[in-house]
Amino acid sequence: MASDEASPAAAAAAAAERIRVVGAWAGSLEVELGGWTVPMLRAEVARRAGGVEPDRINLIFGGRVLKDDPPASLQQAGLKGNAKVLSTLLAPDRGKAIAAQAAAAAAEEEHNNRLVRLWNAAEALCQRHTDGSFHEEDFNLDLEDQSGQKVMFGSVDDLKAVKMALMLHQKAKTFIKRDMHKEALDVLAMAEEAFSLCDPKLIERVDNVPMLQLDIVWCYFVLRDVSRLEVAGTRLERARSGFERSHGKDSARFRLLQAGRHADLAIYVRLELLEGVVAYHNGNTVKARESLTSAQAKYMQLQVPDEAISILMSMGYGARAAKRALKMTGYDIQSSVDLLCEEREKKIRRVQEDMEMQKEIMEQKKYGKTPMNKTVNMQKLKGLVAIGFEKKLAAEALRINENDADKALDLLTDPEQNCILQHKIMSKAKRLSRGSGSGSSSSRAAAATTASGVNNSQAPVDTSANVPDGSAMEESHVLPVINEEAANNVEAVNDDETVNHEEEDMSEESAEGEEEANPPPVRDVAMENELAHEMTGDALDDYDIDVSNEGQAISEYLSLLDSAA
């Protein structure tokens, strides 16, 4: 009994022995012969041999192959101090290798297909929301500055390119937040390509392009891709010069726009860290220490005291919003409250604008598509309404004339053409009424309503009655007649139902022919929704960076510099 208790103690007290390994990996190992097993030795040699699978390592000692089964300690296997073990690397299983290659190829193909889908979806979204195409969704894509004001610049192609670039960049940021940096790099490359399609003079004073360069280099750093060190330095130079153009020297212009706040501090922490890392790997220790020291000072400014967060939380603000405001205002409580109030007002204003935009989009959908699959231009419609034309009639005139305001005005001021247009609208309204089961009485009621709107003047009259737009609708609306001549013409036309139906059928066939000649493009709805829903509209989101990883990296490289010194 005493001897059984003493043996484990003696084994634990035994000193580690050195054994030599040659072959697939050569070197010495300090092992405890009584505690280490053959599988443990095999796993350690596999790790040191480049991380290969342990079952590919073969161990030979004393002319025999060491087996894992039955499990035995190295001492039981006959190994002693200074024993020499031969390790060989077995060829991987051919079937496993082929399967692994096929899986890798399939994953790569799926990834490439997803990138193509991303590009096509972004292009389709931006095309529809730039050139006036018919919106299939209930939102609109607009460019805004940091104050929330709409931005319009350049040509339609420039606007489309910028929207695409920003949308793809936002998608890449989502990947970065999920630690999917390899996927983010591919999307960032597409965003950079989209920016290249825009006139450089139009985007040189905005910081979106330098932010893109910075995000690309950050992905290089996280992936430890030293092979891209040279191109990383070039990208950081572009980012630095881009920030100086957009933010001004020492961020003077940015401070002015942000009421003296330091919202961009986290951006410069990351920029100077990466500049220091590139300088360190290029052997420029002086530049590396200068950049890293400056980054560390800015990093310390972003460490928000818990007491300040507690004060703002006691006022009813959330912890995340309070911390962001304090970081951007240098812990100043009053400035933080002012910033939070501004952000709240922006959100309220944005909700109101979104509601108005959705109402406008729904109104556009009621008017239907033009022959070229465009929406009715609301600004031109407002212009025609402002000079006295009834809204529904003016919308139909714009729709059939591809939003050409001059042609629409000519049509509206021509009594004969005006009458034909009204008749076309009312005929479709009656067809919808018959289709809903209301019968001929509905048609007579519509005619009666129309007659009540007769006015002897040439100026259009707006009444409470509405008119369909010429496209399929669930409701039937009726347009008031503009003048007496039109009323008489309508009554004459109503006397000849057979001719009317033939003309209506021909009109329908013509409209169907237009749709077939210009079919709407096939949509990738899932990918479009994925892209659109990631657009936050938060002007300060790009500057709200969690710099905890940057802080660790700064400390790590400063320690390396101290060791080198």
From TrEMBL:
Compositionally biased spans, kind Low complexity: 439-453
Domain Ubiquitin-like: 37-85
CDD domains (UniProt xref): UBA (cd14270)
Stretches with biased composition (Polar residues): 454-466
Annotated segments matching region Disordered: 428-473, 499-521
Pfam families: UBA
BP term (GO), one: regulation of ubiquitin-dependent protein catabolic process
Protein name (database record): UBA domain-containing protein
Phylogenetic classification of the source organism: Eukaryota, Viridiplantae, Streptophyta, Embryophyta, Tracheophyta
